[in-house]
Write a structure and sequence with these properties.
With 243 residues, the protein is of the alpha/beta class. It has 10 helices and 8 strands.
C-alpha cells in the first residue's frame, strides 16, 4: 500500500490550499495538520468537508502563529523552540528540555488537535522531531506513527535501532520516502522506488505548498504511477494490523 501524505497542513493559507487542491485531484491520500498555526482552524473545517484523513504534525520547532493561543501554551512553545531549533538536541541528551514541560506541550497539541480535527489518523513531527528519544518516549501508542525517512538507495538497508524501536512500540508502516527524493521532476532518483508499495506499506512525504512539488503531484507521470499501486492512508494501515 502507498500512503501519499502532505505535511504542514494548516501552517499557512498557501499550504492548506495546495494540500486541498492535491487531495481533490487524488494526488495525495493523507495530510499532517498543525495546531495553533496561521490557518489551523480553516484547515480543520476544509478537511471535514472533504473527508481528508489528517494526523498530527507535532510542532516543537516553530512558535505558534494563531491569535487565540493561550498565554501559557504560547510560552511553553517558545521555551521549547529555543531548544529544538538548535542542532544539539538531535543526539545530545544534555540539550533536551525538561521532561515535564515537553510532556505538557505534547499533550496540549494532541488535545487541541482532537478539538479541531477529531482523532488523528497518525502522528509525525515537523522537522522529524517525533523520532528523537526525548519526544518519542512521551508519545502515546494510541495512533500510528511515521517511520524514519529513508532515501531510495537505502530502502533495503538493515533497520536501525530506532526503526526497530518504532516497530516494537507503535503501529507503523515499512518505509518512508520523500517525494523530492523519488520524483524525477523535482530531482528524485525515479518513481520505480514506489514499486515496493505492491508488497509492503510505503509512505511518501510531500510538501505541496512548494510549487514544484504541487506541479509534479498534479502531473500525468504521477497520476500514471498511482494508477499502478494500491493506495491508502494511515487508517487503512491501523485497520490492517488489527486483522
Amino acid at each position: 500500500m502507498l500512503i501519499v501524505n502532505a505535511d504542514d497542513y494548516g501552517a499557512a493559507t498557501s499550504a492548506t490550499n495546495a494540500i486541498c487542491e492535491a487531495f481533490d485531484d487524488r494526488a495525495i491520500t493523507s495530510a499532517s495538520g498543525m495546531v495553533w498555526m496561521g490557518d489551523s482552524a480553516r484547515a480543520a473545517s476544509l478537511a471535514g468537508e472533504r473527508g481528508l484523513p489528517v494526523g498530527l504534525h507535532l510542532n516543537l520547532t516553530l512558535p505558534f502563529a494563531a491569535r487565540d493561543v493561550p498565554p501559557g501554551v504560547r510560552e511553553r512553545q517558545r521555551r521549547l523552540t529555543e531548544v529544538f531549533t538548535s542542532d544539539g538536541w538531535r543526539e545530545d541528551a544534555s540539550h533536551w528540555p525538561d521532561r515535564g514541560l515537553l510532556r505538557e506541550a505534547i499533550d496540549e497539541q494532541i488535545e487541541r488537535f482532537c478539538e479541531q480535527f477529531g482523532q488523528p489518523t497518525h502522528i509525525d513531527g515537523h522537522h522529524h522531531v517525533h523520532v528523537y528519544d526525548a519526544v518519542l518516549e512521551l508519545l502515546p501508542t494510541t495512533w500510528p506513527i511515521r517511520q524514519l525517512l529513508r532515501t531510495p538507495e537505502r530502502v533495503d538497508a538493515r533497520p536501525s535501532r530506532r526503526e526497530l524501536n518504532l516497530r516494537r512500540r507503535f503501529v507503523t508502516h515499512d518505509v518512508t520516502l520523500a517525494f523530492e527524493h523519488v520524483h524525477p521532476a523535482v530531482g528524485g532518483a525515479g518513481l520505480e522506488a514506489l514499486d515496493r508499495a505492491k508488497e509492503v506499506c510505503v509512505e511518501v512525504m510531500t510538501h505541496p505548498q512548494r510549487r514544484v512539488e504541487l506541479d509534479a503531484l498534479m502531473g500525468s507521470e504521477w497520476r500514471a504511477t498511482l494508477a499502478t499501486l494500491p493506495l491508502g492512508c494511515y487508517l487503512d494501515l491501523e485497520n490492517s494490523r488489527k486483522v
